[in-house]
UniProtKB/TrEMBL annotation:
Leader peptide range in chain numbering: none
Pfam families (alphabetical): GrpB (PF04229)
Alphabetical list of InterPro entries matching this protein: GrpB/CoaE (IPR007344), NT_sf (IPR043519)
Gene3D superfamilies: Beta Polymerase, domain 2
SUPFAM superfamilies according to UniProt: Nucleotidyltransferase
Superkingdom of origin organism: Bacteria
Protein name: GrpB family protein
PANTHER family: GRPB DOMAIN PROTEIN (AFU_ORTHOLOGUE AFUA_1G01530), GRPB FAMILY PROTEIN
Amino acid sequence: MKITFEKYNPFWKKQFETIKNELKDSIGFLNPQIEHIGSTSVENLSAKPVIDIMIGVKNEEELDKIPPLLRGQDYVYYQKYNEEMPYRRFFIKLIDQPQNLGFPEIINAGDEIPEGIHDHKLRTAHIHAIPTSSEHWLRHIAFRDYLRTHPEVKDEYQQLKEYLSEKEWHDGNDYNEGKDPFIKREERKAVEWYLEHRK
């Protein structure tokens, strides 16, 4: 598959705000910190037109309160990733309820990923729930803010994404591996910069 890759669209900000408000309606009593991350959160950076959202909770115990609260909506819960990444709960938000698109609400460990669920035309957002005390929360926020304030790094990332978007990939995870060396290198710099400048 080729990754759908679009020029920056100001509408992505509005999409984020809409989804953020929906999430607040479902999980607001947890007092989550809800952040727009990833390429769609960086002005003038091209991206897959899927909004990356990070829900920050107080601790890992709160993570498992979220999946039941999103049941019966437009989300698929990838429970299968919990063992590999116990610090995170991952969901995709679809354009409709999963059962209306022929998908399960939960993908468990050992389940095959349903055919067609990788079609980015059917997704509106990727949701990552992570404790705000986690290093993973820090690196996502730092990398976003670093790209927003370092145009030369953003331009290098743009060129890499353009190059990778021309290739064929098995799925989105495969594509993400192509970006991994750049992201890991720049994330280290971003975290140092963020910790130094956020005070």
